[in-house]
User: Which sequence fits this backbone?
């Protein structure tokens, strides 16, 4: 390799590294907007997708607004959001966005672990049986 070719290669490597550092610094300087639980619930409400689904005494899920009864196979989890409090484990929650077989979207809201509002293992067992869909949900929040 000639001196001219080596010099050109070194300049190219140097400029590439500078560009990477520049892009990284720009990305790190721009804050990424974090969505809070209340922001996501409000977005769902505005889109008419605020059907909360809760566990019934009979071990099935029921849509509060739509008044539908669901078995695990009637639903699919299309998105999961986890929210963590700054210092209190009691502030940790999880929001599951679900779609039923009719294409209706709803959600299940719960806290983590011992702070869960669900009693017994039935809730966890029900959730484990719901299939997870591989979907891009960008259209819900644009």
Assistant:
């Amino acid at each position: 390799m000639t001196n001219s070719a080596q010099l050109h290669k070194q300049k190219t490597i140097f400029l590439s590294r500078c560009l990477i550092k520049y892009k990284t610094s720009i990305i790190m300087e721009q804050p990424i907007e974090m969505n809070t639980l209340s922001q996501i619930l409000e977005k769902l409400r505005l889109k008419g997708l605020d059907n909360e689904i809760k566990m019934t005494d009979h071990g099935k899920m029921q849509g509060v607004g739509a008044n539908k009864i669901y078995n695990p196979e009637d639903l699919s989890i299309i998105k999961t959001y986890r929210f963590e409090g700054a210092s209190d484990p009691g502030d940790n929650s999880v929001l599951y966005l679900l779609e039923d077989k009719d294409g209706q979207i709803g959600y299940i809201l719960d806290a983590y672990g011992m702070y869960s509002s669900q009693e017994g293992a039935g809730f966890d067992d029900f959730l484990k049986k719901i299939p997870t869909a591989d979907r891009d949900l960008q259209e819900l929040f644009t």
Notes: The beta strands are 51-55, 61-63, 69-70, 75-83, 93-100, 105-111.
